[in-house]
Amino acid sequence: MKYAASCDHQLRLAGQLATNKIRLLNNAMEKLKKPNGRTIFLEHGLLRVLALWLAPSHDGDLPLLQIRQEILNLLYFEYSSIRSAHLKGSGLGQRIFELARNQEETSKNRKLAKALTARWAREVFKIPTDYADISCAERSQIDLERAMQSVQQRPIAKPKEPVRSFLPFGMDGQQKSSLAATKDNCLRTRVPMVSMKDYVVRPRSERVAEDANRTKETWNDKFVKNFLKRKMANRSEPNRMLNISNASNAF
Q: pTM of the full predicted structure?
């Protein structure tokens, strides 16, 4: 595959037709899809070779559509176990990112490229969960587990001793001793303590039920509804026709 990519590059520079990669494509994809050799291919620099196949030509033209489509499908559906160590130094991530942002690429290939970019970004930044693929119940369970972990990692707050307050003037010794004996005595404004609890409240969404009960209104239904509205409006209006008498006026 590497030799075919280099031959096509030389043919492009010479202004000739490059057909080495397209002739080798079906045979290469058949061998790369075998489950037994995927780990060996990754360890021996498969991603670097695929980056060469997806590299644009010297004049900026993209490779053939069939080559781009087969490689994207191979990476998304067959090689889902790609790690950050495989991507490092291969240059494939940059090629996929360029395809995802290229306006000349097809919508299907752009979606696959964006999905691959998101998957590899989670692998690089150690984000194990994709929230776009999980349900609301699983998401709330993950939030609850994280909240419990954060509560367990927080230090236990020790209760503070009450602050002594200044006693008002004009109190005798018995009143001072009784006020000092009470721990809850405070002549200042009391400030409530900050709650150390985490609340995970996710109300049930009623959007799904509303969308299920809602029926799509057809053109015939709109026509009948508008016709009935006009009919009721005509009935409610007073009779504006004038009564013309046939009797002649006498002079």
A: 0.53
